[in-house]
Amino acid sequence: MRKNKMATLGAFIVIAIVIIGILAPIISPYDPNAQDLYNSLEGPSLKHPFGVDLYGRDILSRVIWGARISLSISFTAVLLSGMLGIMLGAIAGYFGGIIDEIIMRIFDMLLSFPDILLAIAIVAILGPGKLNLILALTIYSLPQFARITRGSVISEKNNEYVDAARLMGENDISILFRYILPNCISPIIVQGTMRMATAILVISGLGFLGLGIQPPTPEWGTDLSVARTYLRVAPHMGIFPGLAIFITVMGFNFFGDGLNDALNPRLKDR
Amino acid sequence: MNQYNNPIIEVKNLLKEFDVIKGFWAKKAKIKAVNDVSFTINEGEAVGLVGESGCGKTTTGRILVRLMEPTAGKIIFAGKDISILKGNKLKQLRRELQMVFQDPFSSLNPRMTVYDILKRPLEIFKIAKTSEEKKQIALKALQDVGLKSEHLTRYPHEFSGGQRQRIAIARALILKPRFVVLDEPTSALDVSVQAQILNLLRNLRKEYSFTYLLISHDLSVVRFLSDKIMVMYMGKLVEVAPTSELFKEPLHPYTKLLMSSIPNPNPRNRKKLKLIEGDIPSLLNPPPGCFFAPRCPLRTPECDKTFPKLREVKKGHLVACFKV
Amino acid sequence: MKKNGKILEVQNLKVYFDTEEGIVKALEDVSFSLKRSEILGVIGETGSGKSVTAYTITRLLPQPPGMILEGKVLFEGEDLLKKSENEMLDIRGEKISMIFQEPMTALNPVFTVEEQMTDVISYHEKISKKQAAEKAIRALELVKIPDPSLVMKKYPHELSGGMRQRVMIALALSCEPELLIADEPTTALDVTIQAQILALILEMREKLGLSVIMITHNFGIVSEICDSVAVMYAGNIVEFSSIYNVFENPLHPYTEGLLKAIPPLDKDVESLNVIPGVVPNLIHPPSGCRFHPRCSRKLDICEKKPPKLVELTDGHFVACHNPLGGGKR
Fold first, then answer.
1. I need a labelling partner for A19 at 20 to 30 A (CA). Which of A261, B139, B155, C5 fits?
2. pLDDT the model gives residue C83
3. Quick one: how many helices (H) and strands (E) in chain B?
């Protein structure tokens, strides 16, 4: 089916980009920071398939290394916010009452900021840099994980198997982690994949605004922002980092959609 | 008549209130789901609790096994008040009280194999030391409910509804509890499968010698599986009697209505189905006197004033009605 | 139109479903007929195909995934399966009505009872809004709803389950159909309310000469209100006759097994008769007779050849190679 093909395409893109990121030191043809000022702004050629930038740096190499940067930052941030968000969301959903109120109201406050503005605000306060970027992205993704976990915990905990577990003498911790959370894992994984896409977008966005990864570190958004000035004379400088962002984000989104269909228990069970 | 005389559960003036939100402005109201209910279940006895949906029978069952706390009232289990137990004492009590749920699709954790499901209680209560021992006990429980050893490693979704209910029964009985609540154990099953489970429960009762409360809306199921029947209406017990007597001579007008409403699978014995008006009143504003008065053919002015108390009219036969 | 003739004849209906797991052979060879003013019970367990039969007759079967491969549904002599969707729109409601297990799903939650009823009535009849409203009130009175003018102003969620089902029936009867198909109309209701709905259906037959197909899994309901019964198993009709024939002289081992599996209300028994095994998967149904793996009277031929539904004695149809009592009384 069409939907299935898109999911496969998504998975393929995600795997390819992860491999590219991991193998960047091996597969990148040049040092991404090696300058060659004589050939500044040169277009695509056999030697430099994506061309070179203002300082004569090989754009293909920069795009490859950019994947490594984007993926490592977004993966760390999604992992961190996932662990924390799942924990807080699960506690809020399972215990309910005043604990739930406190946790969720704080997250509601975070969610009331327009998407990227929150990340900008955090980085603006803490200053740019890899670690601060990770922190900003973690805080930014936290409420989403908490919300989705809380929602599935609340719907799962009404199942009779939870009552049965309680009757067998299981305590709250065990019920939450042994019984309820394993059944909530599919929407969380889907959310995680989708969050990867947004995180990559936010990293590039911040880079574009000069608040993200600072030059000369190769990063798609930062490179795109530099390319803006030379768009008329050297369009290749912007096209390739832009395409990289577009394809990666699309890949994660397709993959997430596909996972959602594949993991949906209502389609699988019975 | 009654060979059981050693009380295992005594329920005294049980009350359970729920908050409900009424109307757009979220005015809170209280409904009494279980309303001043008292009864005794003797060791070895099989008691049926019948009533229509929303009458409080499931709530009663859940309170008895302490899945819910009563708003007021006492539950004495084997001489001890268990309505206020907490922590480790409550955990130790779990060994003795179990429940089989209505929906075999939601009562088994889809991510656990049958073996994991059966093994957990043994681990929690440290019943078996070695994994070999655990396996033996789990296997025995599984075979007792008519399943095979190869089923141990499978997941719930690989079973039919009837087989799942067998697994749920094995789980409830593996700790050898003294008292079990069976909450509509067959209402989600087809007729041919229902018969298998009903026979199984009857055999297991002999083998495991446990006392149980069977909750059901189906009088034929209750008749097959209980020695004594309690009839509940809008949170109140209206009649309690030994099974054969209740079917021979129902006394409360609600019980009579219930009996006459069950379609009988014998075409020569058709009832004269009467088209009466009237509906079950809402628990939100129950009638001032007897809750059944608005539908009752025997209604007198007295019935609109107070709710009649449950009183013994014959040995072992209790009725809450002024007109009996 | 002849009175007391057959109002509906279903012949050799074969319906499959194309699903991701494979082709579900939901109905294999379903034939039965219904006389005017008769109440026919269609009884079966989960997956027997009883609801699919109803949805095929009314052409409400979603296609795809459903596929009607063979068969005829003759309603007053005309094949409904050959009608266009527009013709069916006129037939549904005016000639054939259907009520469902959960009335809440069939009633629109955002419209009042009055709006829904007058809407249906004025679709089929060219009358004024006021006349339609009067007709709706008469329909509500007919189904013994107290204060019909009050109920008219209410939304479905403001009514109790029993009241909703009555409104559903009033809605279904408001255009005076000739055939009512009731798909488990009382399963979601309590027994005392169920008794009222059954009484209502009987009364509608008396008053309006309605023909009814009652789909249920409850033998009690069939014996209380039906004249004849079709027993379905795994996509086939295995037995079809008057209720007295079926209940007192079942010819098919499945029918007999089911009847004996019901816990009796009027006597104590030690144990219940059990049909071993479970309902088969209809993607890979058993060869030959689909009941043979669970049957105690199985012959060699049962595995090979599916039995045809034949009239063994007068008006008593059975699909079995080895019927009880050899088929003779």
1. A261
2. 83
3. 9, 12
Q: Where are the domains of chain A?
A: 2-36+47-265
**What burial class does residue C189 get, using C-beta atoms within 10 Å of its C-beta: 0-12 exposed, 13-18 middle, 19+ buried?**
buried
Closest Cβ opposite residue A167 in set B65, B112, B157:
B65
Residue A128 to residue A126: CA distance in whole angstroms: 7
Residues belonging to chain B with any Cβ–Cβ distance to chain C shorter than 8 Å: 52-53, 160, 162-163, 190-196, 198-199, 202, 217, 219-221, 223-224, 244, 247, 257-258, 260-268, 270-271, 273-280
**Please, which chains are in contact with C (at least 3 CB pairs closer than 8 A)?**
B
Residues with Cβ within 8 Å of residue A109, at least 6 apart in sequence: none
Nearest by CB to C220, from B160, B202, B264: name it: B264
Global pTM value: 0.85
Domain that holds residue C37: 1-49+65-83+212-329
- Four-residue CA torsion sign, A192, A197, A200, A205: negative
Question: Using CB atoms, which residue from C193, C218, C263 is nearest to B224?
Answer: C263
The gap from C-alpha C91 to its chain's centroid, in whole angstroms, comes to 18
Inspect the interface and report whether the beta carbons of C274 and B262 lie closer than 8 Å: no
On whether both B159 and B31 belong to a single domain, the answer is no
Is A167 in Cβ contact with B67 (below 8 Å)?
Answer: yes
Rounded to a whole number of angstroms, the distance between the first and last alpha carbons of chain A is: 21
Q: Which two tokens stand for residue C59?
A: 């052409």
User: What is the Cα A96 distance to its own chain's centre?
Assistant: 29
Say how many domains are in chain B.
2
Q: Tell whether B27 and B49 lie within a shared domain.
A: yes
Range of the domain at B40: 7-96+179-191+210-264+271-319
Are B53 and C163 within 8 A, CB to CB? Answer: no
Per residue in B45-87, pLDDT (tens digit) is 999 999 888 788 999 999 999 999 999 999 999 888 998 888 8
- Taking an 8 Å cut-off on Cβ atoms, the answer to whether B196 and C274 are in contact is yes
ipTM of the complex in this document: 0.86
Do B226 and B83 belong to one domain? yes
C203 neighbourhood in chain B, CB within 8 Å: 275
| C108 CB-near residues (< 8 Å, 6+ apart) | C116, C156
From the list A160, A166, A183, which residue is nearest B111 (CB)?
A: A183
* Contacts of A among chains (3+ CB pairs under 8 A): B
- Which positions ≥6 away from C198 have C-beta within 8 Å? B263, B273, C186, C221, C224, C225
Q: How far apart are CA C16 and CA B192, in angstroms?
A: 25
Whether residue C118 lies inside any domain: the answer is no
Q: What CATH number did the domain enclosing B256 receive?
A: 3.40.50.300
Domain count within chain C: 1
Q: What share of chain C is helix, strand, coil (3-state, %, to 5)?
A: 40, 25, 40
Same domain flag for B162 and B185: no
Task: List CB contacts (< 8 A) between B111 and chain A.
Answer: 179, 182-183
Q: Is residue C124 part of a domain?
A: no
- Would residue C168 count as lying in a domain? no
Position C213 confidence tier, pLDDT thresholds 50, 70, 90? very high
* CATH class of residue range A2-36+47-265: mainly alpha
